[in-house]
Design brief:
The structure is a single chain. The chain is an alpha/beta fold. It is 40% helix and 19% strand. The chain has six helices and seven strands, in the order βαβααβαβββαβα. A five-stranded parallel beta sheet has the order 2-1-3-6-7, with helices on both faces. It has a two-stranded antiparallel sheet with strand order 4-5. The protein starts with a strand and ends with a helix. The model has no long low-confidence stretch (mean pLDDT 95).
Length: 187
């Protein structure tokens, strides 16, 4: 089972890209096979169309990227999400990923007492974010909504969020130290 990275930043010269590049280099140095979902490079359309909504309950999609991404998620025990925090949450393209990819029968089934997650084979999830605000300011959405209400319900385990806040005010040395911390955590 290969680690799967979901990357959500559109700008190729971003600090988020530097984090991704460092992680990919570490995997390559250690001959670790990985899967990359680069939502912008893939030209992923995050809009759930009327047609795809009609297929949703049956766990189907007309978008070939959805099928590919589901295949990646079936083959992973470790999920890494990398992206910026904009307006206190990950970019809209990531929300579209959740809406379109985490379909019924694939990511969950409806049980008598609510949703039963189908992604319990994902044993470790790390969410790596950067923000212009202090980390304490942005934490509630990621923890309360994404981790506690979405990912955990779907069965993902050991979910951790690390954020580098005040990104516009810190030094290059602090940025590099964060990358090293992330690499160490994921090794």
């Amino acid at each position: 089972m290969k680690p799967t990275i979901i990357f959500t930043h559109p700008w190729p010269d971003s600090y988020n890209q530097a984090i991704l590049d460092a992680l990919v280099a570490q995997y390559q140095e250690r001959s670790i096979e990985y899967q990359l979902i680069d939502l912008h490079q893939d030209n992923f359309n995050p809009v759930l169309s009327c047609h795809d909504l009609s297929l949703y309950a049956a766990g189907q999609s007309s978008d070939p990227l959805v099928i590919r991404y589901q295949g990646y998620l079936r083959q992973t025990r470790e999920l890494i999400i990398i992206g910026p925090i904009w307006w206190y949450e990950l970019p809209a393209i990531f929300k579209g990923f959740l809406d379109k990819v985490l379909l019924a029968a694939f990511a969950f089934v409806d049980g008598d007492k609510g949703i039963i997650g189908q992604l319990s084979h994902i044993e470790k999830t790390t969410i790596i974010t950067t923000s212009g605000s202090d980390t304490a300011v942005i934490g509630n959405y990621i923890q309360d909504v994404l981790i506690d209400r979405t990912l955990a319900i779907l069965g993902l385990k050991q979910i951790m969020h690390v954020n580098l806040g005040n990104i516009d005010k810190i030094s290059q040395a602090e940025r590099q130290a964060f990358i090293e911390e992330v690499k160490q955590h994921l090794s």
